[in-house]
Recover the amino acids of this structure.
């Protein structure tokens, strides 16, 4: 009898992200009202963002600068000719009944960013994710549903237009991602880049960074894409990853059961850790885009473009490569140090002041990071300056002080600052590396512990550690550990 | 030419409620307007770039300087309904983007 073994079909997910990101300008994209988060309802409104008759919107020059810089940092081509368009739809959060956006001539197109994951052995896995386009647009207002937290249960709604007209860039990726992890890393790298540029704070809780995911599943080897589902409402990178993993499982199970995937929008529910259907998309909406007649087209001059390009900082991916290849750091260390630009710059300043890269990295990622986390501080908010960290690292490396003493003086350095060298001299913390001085202490310790000495001489040699500890204690941790070991062993055996 | 079905669709997109008489009337009127514009297609525009606006201006921007609008109360009170500092709108039945 023969049994046929069914070959299990392997599936792959095709994932693309649409990210809306608020630009850190003081005022709105087309009017001079504040963009401040958390203001009282409808305090930051004006006739332009409210679309009252007879007003003239004018583009905020910072919005253009930030959008172009973001486009350059994402390796995009910057459009020679770009314009704004009206996207028309009715919804109460949209005061004008159209959104000013960019349709067929976005400011930037055809770019990419590089994500870096670390595999089980600590090796970097790098992948380029294509950027289809980046365009400028205005945000809509915020709806509050009275009588219920759900739309369907409300008898009426309240609207706050403070957000209406807040500048956004929408960044659309190519469908280049294959897992929840890749997508979460893409979103994090995008935020890192925008933060390095200083064009956005990328705060997901305040809605400064919002990601929508497009995802379909197909059998490996199939050329055509499966039916695409959109997922919204993830407010952390972790939620992006989990929503995608849930959706891959759901779609795969549906396909295996012979069900049809419906093209729809689904909401991620954080509480139940699943996606729920929001609405079925009936074809593509009819937005009737047309060129915005009130706004002049944009032609970025070559001089302007080159000036903005010259203002770009070294970006996270470039720093990671440099830390790994030139400084010999592990991909993991490089990734942690470059996550925040201020930390990376602190690290670089410490190296420039003479610290070894590996030691500076260890202190920053270890004791300093722990202190910052515990006290909710940024690295530039502590009194320990990078130059002083370099001094501390050097004192340990040239054996002036032990690593333990280094840790002991950290609290003072964090709060009061100053020179580690001066503190070591003031408190007489220098390492005792003088044999004569050490022998004196050792003789005292041996004389004070005759029982242990006898046990040691009877073969219990692991008591060496006991004696080393005693000597370190007697010297307040200042005894050179290596020399102490040597001298003790000699005396105990002799 | 435009047919009645297209007029209905345009009216729906613009949230306009038309009577059957109005549908008939606008189908005729819009058709004659479109026919009039159709005359332009006699011109050969193969080498003419599309024109989005009639005035030759570009790169009009303003500095990012805060100038809060002083009469927000006037904007709020011009809405049909308010509740506290909010604009009040009827129940939302259809979710549409």
């Amino acid at each position: 009898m023969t049994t046929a073994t069914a070959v299990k079909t392997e599936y792959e997910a095709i994932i693309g992200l649409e990210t809306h990101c608020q630009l850190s300008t003081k005022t709105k994209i087309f009017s001079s009202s504040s963009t401040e988060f958390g203001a009282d309802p409808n305090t930051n409104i004006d006739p332009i963002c409210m679309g009252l008759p007879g007003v003239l919107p004018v583009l905020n020059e910072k919005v253009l600068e930030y959008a172009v810089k973001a486009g350059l940092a994402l390796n995009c081509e910057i459009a020679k000719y770009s314009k704004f368009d009206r996207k028309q739809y009715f919804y109460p959060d949209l005061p004008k009944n159209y959104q000013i956006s960019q349709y067929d001539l976005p400011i930037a197109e055809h770019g990419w960013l590089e994500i870096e994951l670390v595999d089980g052995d600590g090796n970097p896995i790098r992948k380029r994710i294509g950027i289809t386009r980046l365009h400028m647009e205005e945000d809509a207002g915020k709806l509050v549903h009275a009588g219920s937290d759900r739309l369907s249960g409300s008898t009426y709604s309240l609207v706050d237009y403070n957000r209406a007209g807040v500048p956004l860039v929408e960044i659309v990726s190519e469908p280049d991602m294959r897992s929840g992890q890749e997508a979460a890393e893409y979103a994090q790298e995008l935020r890192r880049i925008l933060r390095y540029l200083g064009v956005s704070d990328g705060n997901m809780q305040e809605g400064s960074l919002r990601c929508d995911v497009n995802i379909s599943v197909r059998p490996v080897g199939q050329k055509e894409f499966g039916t695409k589902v959109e997922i919204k409402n993830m407010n952390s990178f972790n939620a992006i990853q989990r929503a995608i993993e849930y959706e891959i499982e759901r779609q795969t199970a549906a396909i295996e059961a012979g069900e049809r995937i419906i093209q729809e929008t689904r909401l991620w529910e954080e509480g139940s850790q699943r996606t729920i259907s929001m609405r079925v998309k009936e074809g593509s909406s009819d937005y009737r885009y047309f060129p915005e007649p009130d706004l002049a087209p944009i032609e970025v001059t070559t001089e302007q473009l080159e000036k903005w390009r010259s203002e770009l900082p070294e970006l996270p991916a470039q720093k990671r490569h440099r830390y790994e290849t030139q400084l010999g750091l592990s991909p993991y260390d490089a990734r942690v140090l470059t996550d925040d630009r201020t930390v990376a710059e602190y690290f670089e300043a410490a190296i420039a002041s003479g610290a070894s890269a590996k030691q500076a990295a260890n202190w920053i990622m270890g004791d300093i990071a722990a202190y910052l986390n515990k006290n909710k501080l940024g690295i530039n908010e502590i009194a320990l300056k990078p130059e002083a960290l370099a001094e501390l690292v050097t004192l340990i490396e040239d054996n002036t002080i032990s690593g333990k003493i280094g840790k002991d003086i950290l609290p003072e350095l964090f709060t009061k600052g100053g020179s580690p060298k001066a503190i070591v001299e003031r408190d007489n913390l220098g390492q005792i590396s003088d044999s004569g001085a050490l022998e004196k202490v050792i003789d005292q310790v041996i004389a004070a512990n005759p029982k242990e000495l006898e046990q040691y001489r009877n073969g219990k040699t692991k008591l060496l550690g006991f004696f080393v500890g005693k000597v370190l204690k007697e010297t307040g941790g200042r005894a050179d550990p290596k020399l102490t070991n040597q001298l003790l062993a000699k005396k105990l055996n002799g | 030419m435009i047919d009645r079905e297209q007029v209905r669709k345009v009216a729906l997109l613009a949230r306009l409620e038309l009577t059957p008489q109005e549908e008939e009337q606008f189908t005729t009127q819009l058709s004659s307007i479109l026919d009039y514009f159709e005359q332009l297609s006699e011109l050969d525009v193969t080498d003419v770039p599309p024109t989005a606006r009639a005035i030759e201006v570009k790169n009009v921007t303003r500095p990012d300087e805060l100038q809060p609008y002083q009469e927000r109360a006037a904007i709020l009170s011009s809405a049909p309904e308010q509740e506290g500092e909010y604009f009040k709108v009827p129940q939302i039945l259809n979710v549409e983007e």
